[in-house]
Amino acid sequence: MTRSRTLSRIAAVQALYQSEHAEMSTETVIDQFVRHRMGQLPWQGGLEDGNLPEADVPLFTRIVRTATQQQDVLDGMITQALPEAWPMLRLDPVLRASLRAGGAELWMTDGPPAKVVINEYLDVAHGFFSGEEPRMINGVLDKLAHLLRPAEFTTAS
After folding, report:
1. pTM
2. Which partner from 61, 84, 122, 155 sits 20 to 30 angstroms from 33, CA to CA?
3. Residue 43: is its pLDDT beyond 90?
4. What is the number of domains present in the chain?
5. Which domain does 42 fall in, by range?
């Protein structure tokens, strides 16, 4: 079973990393990903080759744009949610991109429930990290979810 939305989240993390690392504009990175790593082209490999041919392109684009447009606000919220000993710039760049992508999706209140978003980014994190990073992503995104979508938690308690 293909998980096109999960593939979109993986691509968003990669694109945000690439944008920061290569100092490329958001639109340039989106264009490169859509042209060269997404789509149903027969010669493209799969995820193991760094390609995401079955990703949900509109979701990918929306996450990357929201993360970039709201980066200052999201970074401030992420900084507040991080342990004091871990400033944003000390984080691994892929971890930083993961938190920004997850935060961006939580920002979009018309998307899936916060708990679904958090679980999706936990799955994504396990693809990139084998240490404690997934736990950190879980904790930070949970704090962001409570800030950005408090109504989802008041009725559940």
Report:
1. 0.89
2. 122
3. no
4. 1
5. 4-154
